[in-house]
């Protein structure tokens, strides 16, 4: 069976795409689901995180950096028979055509939304990009994800607007702004491998469960 492909994208940087990509991939890998991360971002954050893993404790998902490939969608197709899940960490769409190409082959376009005012503009543009891709890819579903959640009035207002969006549904899961995610990145681990990070564990497990329900139903 061909891999399910998830494109993690947004119009701008700073929304936590790489954090979501690596931790979702790690959660799937730890669940014995063969998973690959495709890094399309020239900054290479996902590649660096996975590369930080010690040799005797490799990251629970594979990684390929295709940031310099002109037609990444064609290259990604080479992996679909070897994995159950492929997660594409996209660069900001404002600076690259790579997200558009990734969405052409994706089953799910996941839009992480950070908790800042600039994300209000970015989410609108990202939705338009995803909806244009749906005109060409009948299999593509779109979801938004509240990321870097904090209990402040401004953040809760932004995420409340997200939850009430009728065009692109928001996932029920919200990912908090937690040091455990940064610690995991530095150590080359999934946050699920960080001891004591109970809330982060709960969030990522809930994210994995919700994503699987979307893709497997």
From TrEMBL:
InterPro entries: CobQ/CobB/MinD/ParA_Nub-bd_dom, DNA_Partitioning_ATPase, P-loop_NTPase. It comes from the Bacteria. Pfam families: CbiA. Residues 6-188 form the CobQ/CobB/MinD/ParA nucleotide binding domain. Gene3D superfamilies: P-loop containing nucleotide triphosphate hydrolases (3.40.50.300). This is Cobyrinic acid a,c-diamide synthase.
């Amino acid at each position: 069976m061909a891999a399910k492909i998830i494109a993690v994208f947004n119009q701008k940087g700073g929304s936590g795409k790489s954090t979501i990509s690596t931790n979702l991939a790690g959660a799937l890998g730890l669940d014995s689901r063969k998973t690959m991360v495709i890094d399309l971002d020239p900054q290479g954050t996902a590649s660096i995180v996975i590369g930080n893993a010690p040799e005797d404790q490799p990251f629970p998902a594979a990684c390929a950096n295709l940031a310099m490939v002109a037609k990444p969608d064609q290259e990604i197709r080479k992996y679909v028979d070897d994995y159950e899940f492929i997660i594409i960490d996209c660069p900001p769409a404002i600076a690259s055509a790579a997200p558009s190409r990734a969405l052409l082959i994706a089953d799910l376009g996941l839009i992480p939304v950070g908790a800042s005012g600039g994300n209000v503009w970015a989410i609108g543009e990202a939705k338009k990009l995803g909806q244009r891709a749906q005109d060409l890819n009948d299999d593509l579903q779109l979801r938004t994800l509240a990321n870097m959640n904090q209990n402040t009035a401004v953040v809760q207002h932004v995420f409340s607007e997200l939850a009430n969006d009728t065009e692109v549904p928001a996932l029920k899961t919200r990912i908090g702004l937690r040091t455990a995610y940064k610690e995991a990145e530095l150590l080359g681990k999934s946050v699920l491998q960080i001891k004591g990070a109970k809330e982060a564990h709960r969030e990522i497990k809930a994210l994995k469960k919700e994503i699987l329900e979307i893709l497997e139903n």
